[in-house]
Amino acid sequence: MSDNNKMNETMIGAPMYDELGKSNIRHILVRHEQSAAHMADGFGRVSRKPGVCFATSGPGATNLLTGIATAQADSAPMVAVTGQVPVAMIGKDAFQESDIIGMANPALKYSYQPRTPEEIPTMVKQGFYIAETGRPGPVLLDIPKDVQQNEANIPFPDEVRVPGYHPWTDPDMQNTARAVELLLSAQKPIILAGGGVIISSAFAELQSIAELLMIPVVTTFKGKGAFPEDHPLSLGPIGMHGHAEANKLMTEADCVLAIGTRFSDRSVGTFEEFEKNLKIIHMDVDPAEIGKNQTTSVAVVGDVRTSLRIFGKLLMDKAVRPSDDNPWLKHVKETKQYWRENLKLHPGEMGAAKILRKLRELLPKESIVTTEVGQHQMWASLFFDAIHPGTFFSSTGLGTMGWGFPAAIGAKTARPDVPVVDIAGDGSFNMTEHSLATAVLEDLPVIVFLINNYSLGMVAQWQRTFYDRRMVGVDLKKCPDYVKLAESYGAQGIRAQSMDELEKAIKDGLNSDVATVIDIPIDPEEDVLPFVAPGTGLKDMILPS
Amino acid sequence: MVWAILSIKVENKPGILFKVTHLFRSRNFNIDSISVGVTEDKKYSRMTITTIGDEKQITQIVKQLDKMIDTIEVRRLDVNNSVYRELVMFKIKVSKPEDSMEINKLASAYSAKTHDAKKESIIVEMTATPHQISAFEELAKKFGIKEMARTGITALEREEHEH
């Protein structure tokens, strides 16, 4: 397979292979297959080309599953390659046999199991094509051992056709024109940017439309980084832990231009409540997302960058220039300012908002940030501004604890030129901390910004909020010591217990040649607020008291 | 709730029936009946799936099926403008000698064929709409139905009228 000149240069996996050793493809050894999948995912999201991960048959393959499902939930391009028992042994319950295609099917964009070596080149070519086009996703190549070992002289195809696959449709001009009319007729318009804006690199198109019309922009959590969060029109993410001003203004708007989003329950709360008194213009590459969770007034199906270009062109033709002192915009500015000044924050020196704002202050704007899953992730959403386009990534759909660190390592392989930071919580980092070995040995010096409350903080918060403080299974009891853990892998471990120590630690991490874990103990009782409780609408947001 | 007939052209490859049925399961849709066979072009198979749901669900099923890479064409047939039939076999109990004649009469009234006439049972084979099958089933109950097997619906849409 090494004759595929278009194949990405980085592969991540557990040992499998003799031919790979003779190629110039970079191989990165990991300590657990789940981490391999997350690394490939992180590489894929940052480079927008499929990351590749390898695993052996049976348990190796099943260990990839969580990573594959994570990539699928967040539309990340990935090609996973698994070993399989020889063709003649399939179905015989052979040693380390698993029906990985059957198991992974609902989490895959597509899958292949070649039965002869002749099939491999076309399948590889098609697999990469499918993984990275349209709405990206994971593709699995499950290759039986004898098919790997047999030799054949097969040309690599220049082009592939996949008859039932139509990754992009051209945006319908009439619908786009209707969308323009509808947005222009709104009294209180808002733009909701989703992950699709990042995937299709539609940053400039989005910004020019927002600025031309002076329309405020909220994002989904997945869309964080689709629009610069230091921009005057930016309100930040909506959702369960969205910004107060974003949630508030979203519920007040009468028309939303929603771009590249699937209206997840975590973003919009209850669907009925969300769409009440709201006209929805929905742009998405995936026709199956139109009307799935919400009622759409106008739908524009197609690559969102193309759709936004046409949309922008139609606006230019109309020579639109609304004044920037209309009552809605004035209200938006006031609401934003009010919440930016009045949201009550944790009073301690090492409160989540303070430490994340310190990180933002010291981190170059082009740095790439990933997160783990939990309270720290939502604090990052609230208090860490993503400024440069496409610099913030998180497991938003599946919510996979343990994703952020290996994904950061994968991101670093794609962008070795910029700092990469995993904003982590202790419970989540715990799940893939073995990747420290990979970060150190493969010379991928990422920074783990470990917001440590020695507990499974999000669950603890729900137990405090909804279960009368009956705390069950959430206390991690100061185990392990993350400084010693980092050092045992040959990484740099720094504990930061004051703002001065934190500032020094971040600078040390940025200057370090090896991976750094900054262990930041915080108040284990600090909650993430605002909070939209599950099953309620965005207007029912719980605020800090 | 409406009853819909979906006609799905897929690549004639192993594993596709699994993927289609898996989609119904994982998206919480139901399959009322399913039939599969090769088309005029041996590269493709046609699956005919009938399902019950509200309009929104059925629209969503069609979209999700359409999105599948293995599906070449997905159509929701217009029930009023399609020929749809199902093949069913009944093994009907024969308790007394005159039952045999009565079952034969009933079968011929429904243009059904009889096979394997034995002292204890007769197999009746009919191709009909689900509605006709239910009607026959009701009438056959008085003899006693020992076993029943049905294929699920298959269907083709009528050509547009030429004016």
From TrEMBL, chain B:
Q: Would you tell me the protein name for this molecule?
A: Acetolactate synthase small subunit
Q: Pfam families per the record?
A: ACT_AHAS_ss, ALS_ss_C
Keywords in alphabetical order: Amino-acid biosynthesis, Branched-chain amino acid biosynthesis, Transferase
**Organism from which the protein derives:** Candidatus Nitrosopelagicus brevis
Which InterPro entries does the protein's record reference? Acetalactate_synth_ssu (IPR004789), Acetolactate_synth/TF_NikR_C (IPR027271), Acetolactate_synth_ssu_C (IPR019455), ACT-like_dom_sf (IPR045865), ACT_dom (IPR002912), AHAS_ACT (IPR039557), AHAS_small-like_ACT (IPR054480)
EC number(s) in its UniProt entry?
2.2.1.6
| Purpose | Catalyzes the conversion of 2 pyruvate molecules into acetolactate in the first common step of the biosynthetic pathway of the branched-amino acids such as leucine, isoleucine, and valine.
Reactions the enzyme catalyzes = 2 pyruvate + H(+) = (2S)-2-acetolactate + CO2
